[in-house]
Amino acid sequence: MIETPLFAYTLRLADNALILGHRVSEWVGHAPVLEEDLALGNLALDLIGQARSFYTYAGEIEGKGRDEDALAYLRDAGAYRNILLVEQPNGDFAQTIIRHLLYSAFAHPYFEALSRSTDETLAAIAAKAVKEMAYHIRHTAEWAIRLGDGTDESHRRTQYAVDELWPFTGELFETDQVERALIDAGIAVDPASVRARWSKTLDEVFNEAALVRPRDGYMQSGGRSGRHTEHLGYILTELQFLQRAYPGAKW
Amino acid sequence: MSVAPTITADGELLERARKAAASVVDPEIPVLSIADLGVLRDVRIVDGTAEVTITPTYSGCPAMNLIALNVELALEEVGFVMPRIKTVLSPAWTTDWMTEKGKATLRKYGIAPPAGKASRRALFGEDEVACPRCASTDTMRISEFGSTSCKALWRCRACAEPFDYFKCI
Fold first, then answer.
1. Residues of chain A contacting B, Cβ within 8 Å
2. Which residues in chain B have Cβ-Cβ distances shorter than 8 Å to A114?
3. At which of B87, B108, B142 does a domain end?
4. Which is the CATH superfamily of the domain at A5-245?
5. Which residue positions in chain A have pLDDT lower than 70?
6. DSSP β-ladder status, B139-143 and B111-112
7. What is the average per-residue pLDDT within B28-46?
8. Residues of B engaging A, defined by a Cβ cutoff of 8 Å
9. B115 and B133 share one domain
10. What pLDDT shows up at residue B144?
11. Strand (E) positions, chain A?
12. pLDDT tens per residue, range B62-72
């Protein structure tokens, strides 16, 4: 399959949002308290909404008649381009919160920069998303502090989550040929340009949460080119079940 | 909503379309019209039919599909054939577009309207939120997320009323 760089780039943004949104939606009905159930439902809804806009645009760029549903429901794991971080299991509540914090602390400044893209559609989607991601950082940072600086048990679990997920953060800052040309054209954002802000947000939160920031070592990679952990297949099994079992089914 | 009736052949049609579109309410807050909410962005007459532009409050707002459908139905009811509904994302919706009438309606309905300007809130955090029941500003946030994307859960310390607050974004 030959993909144009803009299609591939837009698809990556969409897949990150959809897979994380789906993961978070798995908490609905299971969260520790009702308010948190609503909060997680809202976070998931924001992400799935962002994914819909990106997919719709990706389909238009591709020009083969694929709409948001075709892209979400009818691609297999190897065709998904999300980073590995967002497909990691929910684990305990601390792992869900830390995964979301690591992503939001990146996505917020990233979308802020993307809202100045020379591509009007990407800029418009990002301008909406940036307002939403501000809430995501605040909410997950508050929890990270509450848990990290909480009981011995909550501290231990939260530090474990940080240590376990840290090797997945390298992929946030990867770029490849697909993106280079788009970055030079002012369409895509160079992730290196938001690294300092990402880092500062996390340092502030970790500091207040009494959490230790791990040192950068070996980083996991592959999702952006379709090489995923085993978890993605299970996510898609559930996410795509209806369209696989009843092709073309509509609400 | 920048379209005022113009003195053209389409003037009467435009006024009719504008009125019909503005009568549609938010399905989740049925006292608030999409015009007062700031979701209705533009109404015009193109090739003899109505073309209405709306914008979502949040990316994932599930009410958008229903709002688009209801606008279409409202236009058909007043005689427009195949009206067109366009959704735009830019400029991004802000609570600053909510009308004063809309804010008063929300308050009466039991939802605290967005306090202050979105730009100020981004910098300085929440302004005082007044209880929609007793108007006291001795209130506290329970959760930043409520029953819909656009609302948060608050409680009044003075009268103990729990209430929805329409988030300022």
1. 35-36, 38-39, 41-43, 45-50, 52-53, 120-121, 123-125, 127-129, 131-132, 134-135, 138-139
2. none
3. B87
4. Ferritin, core subunit, four-helix bundle (1.20.1260.10)
5. 1-2
6. unpaired
7. 94
8. 56, 58-62, 88-93, 122, 142-147, 149, 153, 169
9. yes
10. 87
11. none
12. 889 999 999 99
In a domain, B6, yes or no: no
| Nearest residue of chain A to residue B153 (CA atoms) | A35
| Residues of chain A with C-beta less than 8 angstroms from the C-beta of B89 | 53, 121, 124-125, 127-128
Question: How many CB atoms within 10 Å of residue B33?
Answer: 20
* CA dist A169 → A101, A107, A160, B7, B155 (Å): 11, 12, 15, 59, 38
Residue B127 has pLDDT above 70, yes or no: no
Strands B162-166 and B29-33: unpaired
Amino acid type, B134: C
Domain boundary among B50, B70, B87: B87
Closest to A48 in 3D by CA, of A15, A6, A90, A95: A15
Q: Which residues contact A76 (CB under 8 A, 6 or more apart)?
A: A236
Closest CA to A122 of A17, A225, A236: A17
The kind and range of the H/E element at B40 are strand B40-46
Burial class of B82 by CB neighbour count within 10 A (0 to 12, 13 to 18, 19+) = exposed
State the pLDDT at residue B10: 75
Domain of residue B15, residue span: 11-87
Chain A nearest CA to B158, separation (Å): 22
